[in-house]
Design goal:
Blueprint lengths: L1 H10 L1 H18 L3 H4 E2 L2 H4 L5 H12 L7 E9 L6 H20 L5 E5 L11 E3 L6 E9 L6 H15 L9 E5 L1 H35 L2 H24 L10 E2 L2 H29 L4 H28 L7 H32 L18 H7 L4 H13 L1 H20 L3 E2 L11 H12 L8 E6 L8 H15 L4 E5 L12 H8 L1 H4 L1 H4 L13 E8 L6 H17 L11 E5 L1 H35 L2 H29 L9 E2 H33 L1 H28 L7 H39 L11 H8 L2
Parallel strand pairs: 1-7, 8-13
Antiparallel strand pairs: 2-5, 2-6, 3-5, 4-5, 9-11, 9-12, 10-11
Length: 788
């Protein structure tokens, strides 16, 4: 296959270029715009049967007119005293403007605007500071979209424009906007900004490293052009998948970040390995076409195998149950396949057409008459002498070096195995984000749970929740829930103000219950008449912010109380369905589904990569060791990342751990990508063994691949590290972890752990009489013993 490809490159390169032009043109014509097909609504990504999915369905059925999935919270504060009449008038005017916006543009998705004037709930929206010096009031804007959805981001843009352009508030009145919708809005904006920042940082870094490695502008530009085209074609191809009938492919909004970073890292590596072998063969005295043919034939198989491990590893994510992961993995895998194809076709054609000019301003590599071709080819590889010395040391004392290296990594690996994931969305944002500033202000006057209440929904065909029996059943449950330590208030049909029905306020509320309270807490106007009065809701206000670990633990206690209430003999005996809505419920479902997927992917990705390695190398035990070394590097990288970000954490809140995406994507990408360099090394070991035997062949392989793998490792680590320039904390953590993992793999696993193990295996086999390789301890002995 590679022989035919090389012949096509050398004789009919224009066909390859024409093919790329035609395919690219077709994709640009048919592919929908990226922004029009990307999705980011977490609820729609959860499998059926999860509490937040059931909750959203019950909310839409029972409360179709005001069913909201997120809310924006506008807080007006006077820190030096009570709110004045002018302050209240300004808040009312703002509330009315927001209500008018709801009427004028229903597409925004504003379901309801609530302020201190509404009956029953209104007085609860005024609060004083704990020191008694200040006062604040809230305006709650309920939105149709979930907090992370694109629709919510658009709605928040409109709300912020309205508030910013409104008349100037009275002197001393401070206005801030927060809430779950504002948090999601800031996260979306940060993600969009991160794409631009990461893209330019990646390109700049690749250009600088390529110029340092090659010093020839055209030779540095060639991989850059190849991968830049691959990125554009990949993004169009991914978007085009949504057009395939029956596939129902979904494009996730963060996919483009991974496509850019992974392709510029891995794709550039593919080009570099091809160019490095091309330079080697030119230095051996081959002509340009012969050198290119030899490079394609010798490197092509390793390129396909190395890319295959990544493609298979990421492709395994298709078996995830969380749609965000299920579609992101295969999308990145498709982009890598396109990048591989470009590296094997487009890059060689450009090399062939440019010929010697590609090395300008230097003379192309060539064989000097009377010189040693092997030494001349090694001279084309950066740091070959250095890596030769390292390989010699490893071969002399493989056991000692292997033991020391593993001992150095194990403590960090143990720490990495013990890390816990953080699912809080607030910690993903920098402290200067508007939603974070607003959330801190809300906590000063109200329970942090006001940022995003948790709604519990019940469907019971045998209970009319507006009857005395129904209200009594809900009150029993409300009383049990209110007794939980971390629950600030329970608002329900029996206690709309969140306090006991025996209080004076609740008795007054009961007098005006029917017109104001019942429609909020019971399905008085359901989408289906059969649901009339049989669906009810409870709004829970937690003491902690809705995204925190404390709120997640509180939600588990809430579910336990509900389970007890729905058992035989309980107040909700015969309950048909229970659902949850709100930010905490979504985060809880996210944690559950990703934890299950992570455990599944550990096995599937590892098994898939192992099969590819065995098919290529045909050495099962060495392949198993290669997998083990990468897993060790993964755990050590995770542990060091945990230590680093814990050390630099300076927020007022305690350190709560790395974002959940770090451990998940670090494992999948590092196990897959990390085997790239092992494959390149082992493929060269097998090639050199035929000439020099296993021991010296291993040393020669390290010498020939060390410099180029180092360069590729720096590029890969740099492209991953470019995510540190992003605005989201999760991207910074993931970029750091991936960059560190690649560096560990490049400078410890590949040049030390792998060669040392290979040498030990061959020496063991030699002692057992199953290997013809002589037992030697110095490379010079190998050279002298094999010289005629």
């Amino acid at each position: 296959m590679f022989h035919s490809l090389a012949r096509l490159v050398n004789t009919r390169g224009w066909i390859i270029i024409a093919g790329w032009v035609v395919v690219t043109a077709i994709l640009f014509l048919i592919a929908p715009k990226w922004e029009s097909v990307t999705k980011d609504d977490d609820v729609n990504f959860f499998p059926a049967g999860y509490p937040s999915v059931i909750g959203q369905s019950l909310l839409n059925r029972g409360f179709p007119k005001d069913a909201a999935s997120s809310q924006a919270v506008l807080i007006a504060e006077r820190s030096d005293g009570k709110l004045t009449r002018a302050d209240y008038n300004h808040v009312v005017a703002l509330s009315q403007a927001l209500t008018q916006l709801k009427r004028d543009d229903p597409s925004i998705g504003i379901k309801q605007v609530v302020d201190y004037r509404v009956p029953i709930l209104g007085p609860r929206l005024i609060g004083g500071s704990s020191d008694g010096k200040g006062e604040a009031t809230l305006v709650l804007v309920s939105l149709n979209g979930t907090y992370i959805a694109k629709q919510t981001r658009i709605a928040m843009d409109r709300l912020q424009v309205l508030v910013a352009g409104f008349e100037k508030p009275p002197v001393g009145l401070r206005l801030e906007m927060t809430g779950s919708a504002a948090v999601g809005h800031d996260m979306n904006r940060a993600a969009i900004a991160s794409v631009s920042q990461t893209t330019w940082a990646t390109i700049l870094l690749v250009v600088v490293i390529l110029l340092i490695v090659y010093k020839s502008p055209l030779l540095a530009l060639l991989p850059l052009l190849t991968i830049a085209l691959s990125v554009q074609v990949s993004l169009k191809a991914i978007a085009s998948l949504t057009l395939i009938p029956g596939l129902q492919f979904q494009v996730i909004n963060i996919t483009n970040i991974f496509v850019i970073v992974v392709l510029f890292g891995a794709g550039t590596d593919y080009c570099l390995f091809l160019i490095a072998r091309y330079r080697e063969e030119l230095a051996r005295g081959r002509s340009g076409p012969e050198a290119l043919r030899e490079a394609i034939e010798q490197v092509g198989g390793a390129l396909v195998a190395s890319a295959g491990t990544v493609i298979v590893g990421l492709g395994m994510l298709w078996f995830s149950s969380f749609a965000k992961i299920q579609y992101t993995g295969p999308a990145i895998a498709l982009s890598l396949a396109i990048g591989l194809l470009a590296a094997l076709t487009l890059a060689p054609v450009l090399l062939h057409w440019l010929r010697g000019a590609v090395f300008f301003p230097f003379v192309p590599p060539h064989h000097e008459k009377g010189g040693d071709p092997d030494e001349e080819s090694l001279a084309q590889i950066p740091l070959s002498v250095t890596w030769g010395k390292i390989a010699s040391v490893v071969i002399r004392k493989p056991g000692l070096i292997l033991s020391v290296s593993i001992a150095a990594l194990i403590p960090f690996a143990i720490l990495g195995a013990r890390t816990t994931s953080n699912y809080s969305q607030l910690t993903d944002l920098s402290p200067d984000q508007p939603s974070i500033i607003g959330s801190k202000l809300v906590r000063k006057y109200f329970a942090a749970g006001e940022l995003g209440p948790t709604t519990v929904l019940f469907e019971h065909p045998g209970i009319n929740f507006r009857s005395d029996k129904g209200r009594g059943a809900i009150e029993q449950l409300s009383k049990s829930l209110a007794a939980l330590d971390r629950v600030s208030e329970v608002r329900s049909i029996s206690r709309p103000l969140g306090v006991s029905p025996e209080s004076f306020q609740e008795r007054i509320a009961d007098m005006v219950r029917r017109p104001f309270v019942d429609p909020r807490y019971v399905s008085t106007d359901p989408a289906n008449p059969a649901d009339l009065d049989h669906i009810t809701r409870l709004d829970l206000i937690f003491k902690a912010d809705p995204f925190s670990a404390d709120s997640l633990r509180t939600l588990q206690e809430v579910r336990r109380v509900i389970e007890e209430a729905s058992r035989p003999g309980g107040p909700l005996d015969g309950l048909k369905a229970t659902g949850l809505s709100g930010s905490t419920a979504m985060v809880a479902d996210l944690k559950e589904v990703t934890t299950k997927d992570e455990q599944r992917m550990y096995w599937l990705v590892t098994l898939g990569v192992y099969v590819i390695l065995v098919l290529l190398l045909r050495r099962p035990w060495i392949c198993l060791y290669l997998i083990a070394t990468v897993v060790l590097g993964y755990l050590a990288s995770l542990g060091i990342t945990e230590l680093f970000f814990r050390a630099i954490h300076d927020g007022p809140d305690p350190w709560v751990g790395l974002d959940w995406k770090v451990s998940f994507f670090l494992f999948v990408i590092l196990v897959a990508v990390g085997e790239d360099y092992n494959i390149f090394l082992m493929a060269r070991v097998i090639e050199e063994e035929k000439k020099h035997g296993p021991i010296e062949g291993t040393r020669q392989a390290v010498m020939h691949t060390g410099g180029i793998i180092s360069s590729c490792g720096l590029i890969m680590a740099g492209t991953f590290g470019s995510m540190i320039t992003g605005s989201l904390t999760a991207l910074k953590e993931l970029g750091f972890a991936l960059g560190l993992g690649v560096l560990l793999d490049t400078f410890i696993v590949r040049p030390i752990l792998v060669p040392a193990f290979v040498v030990l295996i061959h020496r063991f086999k030699a002692r057992q009489g199953t290997d013809n390789e002589p037992i030697v301890h110095d490379p010079a002995e190998v050279t002298s013993s094999t010289t005629p």
